[in-house]
Amino acid sequence: MAAERVRWGILATGGIAASFTADLLDLPDAEVVAVASRTDASAKAFAERFGIERAYGDWASLAADEDIDVVYVATPHSAHREAAGLCLEAGRAVLCEKAFTLNSREAEELVTLARSRGLFLMEAMWMYCNPLIRRLKALVDDGAIGEVRTVQADFGLAGPFPPAHRLRDPAQGGGATLDLGVYPVSFAQLLLGEPAEVTARAMLSEEGVDLQTAMLLSWDSGAQALLHCAINSGTGGTASISGSTGRIDVPSGFFHPERFVLHRDGRDPEEFVADPADGPRDSLRHEALEVMGRLRAGDTESPLVPLDSSLGVMRTLDSVRAAVGVRYPGER
User: Fold this and answer.
1) What CA dihedral angle connects 253, 254, 257 and 263, to 10 degrees?
2) How far apart are CA 310 and CA 247, in angstroms?
3) Percentage with pLDDT > 90 across the chain
4) Would strands 93-96 and 121-123 be described as parallel, antiparallel, or unpaired?
5) pLDDT digits (tens, 9 = 90+) for 188-233
6) Taking every pair of C-alpha atoms in the chain, what is the biggest distance, in angstroms?
7) Looking at residue 332, what is its pLDDT?
8) Displacement of CA 233 from its chain's centroid (Å)
9) Residue 98 known to be catalytic
10) 10-59 tens-digit pLDDT
11) Rounded distance, CA 117 to CA 115, Å?
């Protein structure tokens, strides 16, 4: 790997790929050297837009490019197993968008492949890399609100999304749970780990994906998480953590907050505000910096986004889909 600059390949050319590439170009020690799509036209248009030297009309050529240190996989999650696996097989480190894969079986396959090859792999759960979320977790871990009793979080988009949209398409892993529910579930498991029991109820579309889903996660400690996601109604995107001696409230956009408020029993509320120096709240730079720092250190996993944590989230999402009856084509 380059000693100073980290050379990135971008696999896919959609909206999140564009956002991540724009943030990479603002980092002086990151270099975007190649992009790949399923078509030459899409790859070339993306390359011209961002001044990228090489454009590939197939994924395999990007994976084989030895000038790339790490590949950012930004396809729909239905293609994560194929795309990330192709890059790992070729010896490339990978940052793979969330949801990590369609299901825990595919996630296990990727993790096993990366570990067997000694290659870096990380889920692009940018929330875990957010400085303010890291501060919140540290407070909870330090006992600021005592023992965690309840986590509440929601994420919903109003839409409406037509049947042909990827969020409604079973073949692309559509539905609220994998696209949006991954955030509330990941938030709860960041604080409490993998739950012992999962129950859920959903409203399904004609295509068989979930339009909205309510989840109840339970832990052996007695803690519970009340979570909700939707692609048919906008929600506040808020979160709250209640403990035995206090509470933390996170306003709209809990996964990239501007602030949160700590309420400790018998004390005045304390507000924690994002540092403007950390960039816009929707910046993806923090996960990019985490990846580059780990690559320079020779690490194959990130302690901020551990692979075992990503596997645990995928198992929970599997349980949610099983409870509500959502199954994707080709799943065993």
Assistant:
1) 130
2) 26
3) 96
4) parallel
5) 999 999 999 999 999 999 999 999 999 999 999 999 999 999 999 9
6) 63
7) 66
8) 21
9) yes
10) 999 999 999 999 999 999 999 999 999 999 999 999 999 999 999 999 99
11) 5
Contact 112, 88 (CB under 8 A): no
Q: Which of 98, 168, 294, 315 is catalytic?
A: 98
Distant-in-sequence, close-in-space partners of 181: CB < 8 Å, separation ≥ 6: 155, 213, 215, 227, 229, 317, 320
Query: Crossing angle, helix 15-25 and helix 285-297, to 10 degrees?
Result: 60
Residue 2: pLDDT over 50: no
Judge residue 233's burial from the number of C-beta atoms within 10 Å of its C-beta, 0-12 exposed, 13-18 middle, 19 or more buried: middle
Taking CB atoms within 8 Å and a gap of at least 24, the contacts of 178-181 are 178/77, 178/99, 178/102, 178/317, 179/77, 179/99, 179/231, 180/155, 180/156, 180/229, 180/230, 180/231, 181/155, 181/213, 181/215, 181/227, 181/229, 181/317, 181/320
Q: Which residues contact 249 (CB under 8 A, 6 or more apart)?
A: 238, 239, 240, 260, 261, 263
CA angle 204/107/292 to nearest 5° reads 115
**What is the chain's mean pLDDT, rounded?**
96
Residues 262-268 have a mean pLDDT of 96
Q: What is the DSSP letter of 178?
A: I
- Which DSSP category does 177 fall into? I
In this predicted structure, what is the pLDDT of residue 331?
85
User: 17, 42 in Cβ contact below 8 A?
Assistant: no
**Residue 260 corresponds to which tokens in the numbers above?**
């949160």
Structure tokens at 3: 């000693």
What is the reported pLDDT for 226?
Answer: 98
Q: Which amino acid is at 209?
A: V
pLDDT at 3 over 60: no
Tell me, rounded to whole angstroms, the distance of Cα 89 from its chain centroid: 22
